[in-house]
């Protein structure tokens, strides 16, 4: 096992992230010394350990986001990323953030995956695992109208290779990866769109030539069922909701977000800030638990 601790950022102090971290630490006192919480001083004081960021007089207000909290979320990410680079952290687990709120204070990235890619380098792939499904995304946080133009063979190959690496680390000897089509029925032989035959199929064939067990393009309306039935070990979805709608329907409380292809391990719960229930003890910790398990096992 990696002897270095895992850094855990609070995310938005007004969201459910801080209480999920606190709940996990209370439930796992034997593992607490292997975790370094990073967040506002009033939250860090609860644990008697960790790293405080932001103004010392900042008071967390569950369910009431503000600009000061957004800046604290960014500072926590910066410190966690730098700590991994400096050899102080084995991995980073990030609490959920508010993308719109972050943009309002000058955050230059669509999400946290892009932030850690910029700080650490590598070829990032957004993926989700921990439950019954393992899903990687070829395109991420872009408008749906831009997806057909954005689908590139290089991105498909990178996503599949990252999924192969992930599933190998999780115990599969020869991972079987399915690649979704972009269009209904994977293009229906060109009747429903040209991208599947022109871009996706050649990328899949190139991956097969490398020796990978890859199938596709396959219709997105059946491939996840086939994954659940054990035919595949992971699915590469072409766009965000194509992959995350089925994943969250099946694994909402058991799956975590992973940033693959980077120099260091970063995971996160696969849900948002949930302001409406923040501070009420109603947040489901399942996804955060999965994020912690994956961070520790993948950085071992």
List the helices and strands and how they pair.
Blueprint: E1 6-9, H1 17-27, E2 35-39, H2 41-44, E3 51-52, H3 67-85, E4 91-93, H4 99-104, H5 112-120, E5 122-129, E6 135-137, H6 147-150, H7 153-169, E7 176-180, H8 195-209, E8 213-218, H9 220-228, E9 234-237, H10 240-251, E10 256-262, E11 265-269, H11 286-298
Helix pairs in contact: 3-5, 7-8
Observed structural traits:
single chain; 300 residues; alpha/beta; Isopropylmalate Dehydrogenase; 2 domains; 11 helices; globular
Gist of the model:
By secondary structure, this protein is of the alpha/beta class.
Portion in helices = 25-40%
- Strand tally is 11
The low-confidence runs, each spanning 5 or more residues with pLDDT under 50, are none
Total domain count: 2
Query: Which radius of gyration do the C-alpha atoms yield?
Result: 19 Å
Order of neighbouring strands in the sheet with most strands: 3-2-1-4-11-10-5-6-9-7-8
Distance between the termini: 4 Å
Report mean pLDDT, rounded to a whole number. 96
Shape: globular
Q: What structural class do the secondary elements suggest? A: alpha/beta
**CATH architecture field of the largest domain:** 3-Layer(aba) Sandwich
CATH class of the largest domain: Alpha Beta
Order of helices and strands: EHEHEHEHHEEHHEHEHEHEEH
CATH homologous superfamily identity of the largest domain:
Isopropylmalate Dehydrogenase
The number of helical elements comes to 11
């Amino acid at each position: 096992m990696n002897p270095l601790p895992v850094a855990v950022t609070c995310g938005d102090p007004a969201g459910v992230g801080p209480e999920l971290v606190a709940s996990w630490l209370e439930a796992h006192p034997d593992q607490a010394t292997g975790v370094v919480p990073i967040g506002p001083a009033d939250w860090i004081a609860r644990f008697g350990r960790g790293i405080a960021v932001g103004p010392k007089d900042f008071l967390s207000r569950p369910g009431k986001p503000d600009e000061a909290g957004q800046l604290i979320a960014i500072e926590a990410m910066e410190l966690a990323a730098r700590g991994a680079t400096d050899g102080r952290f084995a991995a980073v687990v990030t609490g959920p953030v508010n993308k719109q709120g972050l943009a309002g204070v000058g955050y230059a990235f669509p999400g946290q995956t892009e932030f850690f890619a910029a700080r650490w380098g590598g070829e990032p792939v957004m993926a989700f695992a921990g439950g019954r499904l393992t899903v990687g995304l070829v395109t991420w946080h872009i408008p749906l109208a831009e997806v057909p133009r954005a689908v590139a063979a290089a991105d498909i190959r990178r996503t599949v290779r990252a999924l192969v690496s992930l599933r190998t680390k999780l115990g599969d000897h020869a991972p079987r990866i399915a690649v979704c089509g972009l269009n209904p029925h994977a293009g229906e032989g060109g009747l429903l769109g040209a991208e599947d035959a022109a871009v996706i199929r050649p990328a899949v064939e190139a991956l097969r030539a490398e020796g990978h067990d890859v199938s596709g393009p396959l219709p997105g309306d059946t491939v996840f069922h086939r994954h659940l039935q054990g035919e595949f070990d992971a699915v590469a979805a072409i766009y965000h909701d194509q992959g995350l709608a089925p994943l969250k329907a099946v694994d909402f409380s058991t799956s975590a977000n992973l940033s693959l292809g980077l120099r260091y391990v970063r995971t996160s719960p696969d849900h948002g800030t949930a302001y409406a229930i923040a501070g009420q003890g109603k947040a489901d910790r399942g996804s955060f638990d999965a994020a912690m398990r994956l961070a520790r096992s993948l950085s071992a």
